[in-house]
Amino acid sequence: MKKLLFFLYLLSFFSCRQALKPAPKEDWGTYKKAYSLLSQQTDSAFYYFNKVTSNSKDSLPIALAYNNMAMIQSDAGDYYGAQESLTQSLKFLNENNPKHYPYLASDYNELGMNSSNLKNYEAAIGYYNKTLHFTNDSNLIALALNNQAIAFQETKNYRRAIALYTTIIRQSGNDSVAYARVLTNLAFTRWLQSTAFNAKTDLLKALRIRLEKNDQWGQNSSYAHLSDYYDRSHPDSALFYARAMYAVARQLNSPDDQVQALEKLIRNSPVAQTKNYFARYRALNDSIQTARNSAKNQFALIRYNVEKNKAENLKLQKDNSEKQYQIARQTIRFYITISVFIILGIVAIRWYRNKKHRQEHEKKEAILETQRKASKKVHDTLANDIYSIMKKVQHVPELNQDWLIDDIDDVYQRARDISHEMIPGSDIDFHKTISGLLQSFGSENTKVVIVGNSAEIWQKINTVYKFELKYILQELMVNMEKHSRANNVVIKFEERGDLCLITYFDNGIGLSDGHARQNGLINTGNRINSIKGTITFESSAGSGLEIKITFPIA
């Protein structure tokens, strides 16, 4: 396979190219690394050229990277991929900038070669004209004219091809490699135009120059021309030169030229040898196609990654361009946010303190109101009754003991009732009160089970807490009856160190967070807070409901 060489021209039977390298720059590190791998590891070179297209901020290295990628793709037989890379390269070059002319000329020369390889010779001729427009380099002019002449030859426009070869050969030395190239192409084209033309002398002269110059690629071309020239008139000579071409192609490790040589050998060899040559031809041709397909897939994958990286890099570039501005904005936002949080914190603290103070004030007012009511009731009932008893004892000496006991017992019972009203739930049988409350929600369809509701637990609980817990449990059971559709409910009471845990379970439909807020359960939070407790809900739709209430015993 043809290799890309540093500062050299690559010559082949079909067309020629000029490899370009810009003046070294300090910020072209990745490009220089890729270029250094160009003649040894083309896949690695392709990878690093791709990095250039993705990461470089300068348009020129990107253009040159795409140009070199196209050369690698073309050598691997990926002609369509090469055309795409060259089209990308042109986007980064300015046709109005004379400094870009050498690179524009190289791109158009490569586009012409790829169009020729794709049998689109008319397009190739146009690209070679553009190459000539953007270059004054005599070597590249000779290459472009030679390539254009080959395209005219392939379209059978032998007159134009011969005119171009004649122009080129006049500018070449009589013993140079370039002279030999044009001489063999001119002679062969004249023979194609008229088989009566004796091309042997010029073809052999070109071969001699190439042998003297050790130009193996040129020798490969000469042997191909000579084999075709003798194909009809002297099959033995055609076979001789086909074998010579095959040997040189193998030395050059050029599969494409080996395939061409094998085609000639199959056409001119004895029948006994044809089978062997055909087997080699088929195996080599299949190998070439497999390698090219593999290369195309590899290049496509790398290109995909490059495009992905390029998009990411563009985003990073955009982010970097706004970085300082964003930092300033973020700093301002940060201080504003801190200030807002401080203000909100102060407001929240003051609100919390006011709320707490208000709640304490309301509790005190409630206690005072209860005391006032109790005082009035004691005054209106008990005080008057006791005063009446005292009068009877003072003025009615005949009173018997039973009367006195009955009146005093009546006063006692009413005093006990008033004390219950002042401090609800203070009775020693509070666990029975709770059991009665919970069991009242049972029915034929709903079974209520109570676990751990003992008098010992309630005796340790603050009297005020009992009052709040009664209404909390009542609210839970009301919610169960209205919404849960449960047929089994369990309420469990546990003492855990200094805490009491009440766990509510049901096997109902459960509830979502939104429903929990709607059904009033969250409203129990105020009562939970008043007893310094916590309440948690664990549920999902269709899986029942579990509620845990924890509060300090003392």
Description:
By secondary structure, the protein is an alpha+beta fold. The protein contains 21 helices and seven strands. The strands form two sheets. It has a five-stranded mixed sheet with strand order 3-4-5-7-6. A two-stranded antiparallel sheet has the order 1-2. The radius of gyration is 52 Å and the shape is rod-shaped. It starts with 8 loop residues before the first strand and ends with a strand. Mean pLDDT is 81; it is low at 1-14.
Summarize the helix and strand pattern as letters.
EEHHHHHHHHHHHHHHHHHEHHEEHHEE
- Assembly type of the chains comes to single chain
Q: What percent of residues are in strands?
A: 5-15%
The overall average pLDDT, rounded, is: 81
- Strand element count: 7
How far do the termini sit from each other? 93 Å
Helix content: 55-70%
Count of helix runs: 21
Low-confidence stretches: 1-14
Strand order in space, largest sheet = 3-4-5-7-6
The shape is: rod-shaped
Key structural traits:
single chain; 554 residues; alpha+beta; 5-stranded mixed beta sheet; 21 helices; rod-shaped
